[in-house]
Design a protein that fits this description.
This protein is of the alpha/beta class and 206 residues long. The two termini are 20 Å apart. The longest helix is centred in the last third of the chain and has 24 residues, at 168-191. The chain has a single domain (3-204), classed as Formyl transferase, N-terminal domain (Rossmann fold), CATH 3.40.50.170. It contains six helices and nine strands; from the N terminus they run E-H-E-H-E-H-E-H-E-H-E-E-H-E-E. Helix 1 packs across helix 6 (168-191) and helix 5 (123-132) packs across helix 6. Strand 4, helix 4 (95-100) and strand 5 (105-109) form a beta-alpha-beta unit. Bound molecules: 5-O-phosphono-beta-D-ribofuranosylamine (GRF). 5-O-phosphono-beta-D-ribofuranosylamine binds at residues 9, 11-15, 87-88, 108-110, 123, 176, 179.
């Protein structure tokens, strides 16, 4: 059975676009039913509209009193949701939503977690820190989302080596390529029911 996916994105949405591309190529047995964004002007929203994917703009300006994100949850509940993908989503997901969709929310993070994870480490901030520390490697991580920033169970991680001539922009580009690759792999594992949970531990079926 096709999995129903909801994507959350705030910016360019290249990870979102890549998932749609893989669906169109029949490499994923899934469909994206909704794109949620806090930013009505972002490229991810434009892309969703051009591809006839429903959109929902959700932010504290529009819903100032929705502290537990109940309205967002109600909205999600109108869809069949097998999987939620955070793809460059800049806002925290509430405990209410994380608990409701336990083990059903994935995130892609542009570092080798737990390194450069947590509040304040996002986007270029991560790559600038990697550059500043002259790290010899970086990479990306696909993980399930728990109630804190970037601490949920890791599904996949891929490392890349960095050259001494690298700067934060070249690091960002290399890492983004890896993100596309492993996010697709992670979503593919989920969509083919290869992820299992045993006593809270994540197991991947061979
Ligand atoms: C990626 O680096 C992702 O790891 C981070 O936000 C960025 C989103 O990129 N969470 P895009 O919008 O998918 O192009």
């Amino acid at each position: 059975m096709k999995k129903s996916i909801v994507v959350f994105a705030s910016g360019t949405g290249s990870n979102f676009k890549n998932i749609i591309k893989k669906i169109k190529l029949h490499r994923l047995n899934a469909q994206v039913n909704l794109l949620v964004s806090n930013n009505s002007n972002c490229k991810a929203i434009d892309f969703a509209k051009r591809n006839n994917i429903e959109t929902f703009v959700y932010n504290s300006k529009i819903y100032p009193n929705d502290l537990n994100q109940d309205i967002l949850l109600q909205n999600l509940n109108q869809y069949k949701v097998d999987l939620i993908l955070l793809a460059g989503y800049m806002k925290k997901i509430s405990k209410t939503i994380v608990r409701f969709y336990k083990n059903k929310i994935l995130n892609i993070h542009p570092s080798l977690l737990p390194k450069y994870g947590g509040k304040g480490f996002y986007g270029m901030k991560v790559h600038e820190a990697v550059y500043k520390n002259q790290d010899k490697k970086s990479g990306a991580t696909v993980h399930f989302v728990d109630e804190n920033y970037d601490t949920g169970p890791i599904l996949l991680q891929k490392e890349i080596s960095l050259l001494p001539s690298e700067n934060s922009l070249t690091i960002a580009k290399k890492v983004l390529d890896i993100e596309h690759e492993i996010y697709f792999q992670g979503v593919s594992l989920f969509c083919s029911d290869k992820i299992h949970w045993k006593k809270g531990k994540l197991l991947i079926e061979e």
